[in-house]
Specification:
It is built from 5 helices and 4 strands; from the N terminus they run E-E-E-H-H-H-H-H-E. It has a 4-stranded antiparallel beta sheet, with no helix packed on it. A hairpin with a 3-residue loop joins strand 2 and strand 3. It is 28% helix and 11% strand. The radius of gyration is 19 Å and the shape is globular. By secondary structure, the protein is α+β, with helices and mostly antiparallel strands.
Length: 166
């Protein structure tokens, strides 16, 4: 922690035990898991992998009809869980992590290929995190995105939601 001139707090950095770092000043808060992200690369056995910029493998869609089971389901689950924890400070990987977690009960070789995309993205973005700023908004702003039509295992669905009076 560091204090500013005249006793006013200027910048505070807190390093948590899980590799998380929280930094804040009078206008913003930044949370990251840089050290933890490096540990994920070790878990994935991908410390020397080539980084990629996109958090999602845009080429393929996963489904339950894939063939051969992955030979180390515990490794798959550990890596998927580690990436899932990272989504607290890296919401940009949430969709990719959610997709591979759908198949955590019976991982296949093809799913592991998709799962390895996450660490490759993390490798190229180790310094990323969540930056929050002060806001004077007085209303709730919500965004959503769904790819129901792209799911190969369930029929298309429509979701309608409303906030406030209609």
């Amino acid at each position: 922690m560091s204090a500013g001139i005249g006793g006013y707090l200027q910048v505070v950095d807190i390093h948590l035990g899980d590799g998380a770092v929280v930094s804040w000043d009078k206008d913003s808060l930044f949370m990251s898991h840089g050290t933890y992200a490096e540990e994920i690369l070790d878990i994935a056995r991908m410390s020397q992998c080539k980084p990629c910029l996109t958090p999602v493998d845009i080429k393929g869609k996963l489904n339950t009809s894939y063939g051969a089971s992955y030979d180390d389901p515990t490794h798959y689950r550990r890596l998927a869980s580690a990436l899932q924890y990272l989504t607290f400070t890296r919401p940009n990987i949430s969709y990719d992590v959610q997709q591979v977690c759908l198949f955590i009960h019976d991982p296949k070789v093809e799913y592991m290929g998709a799962l390895k995309h996450g660490p490759r993205h993390v490798k190229g973005t180790l310094d990323y995190g969540t930056h929050l700023y002060k806001s004077s908004l007085q209303s709730l702003v919500s965004y959503t995105d769904a790819d129901w039509g792209g799911c190969l295992d369930t029929p298309p669905q429509v979701i309608v939601s409303s906030l406030g009076t209609t």
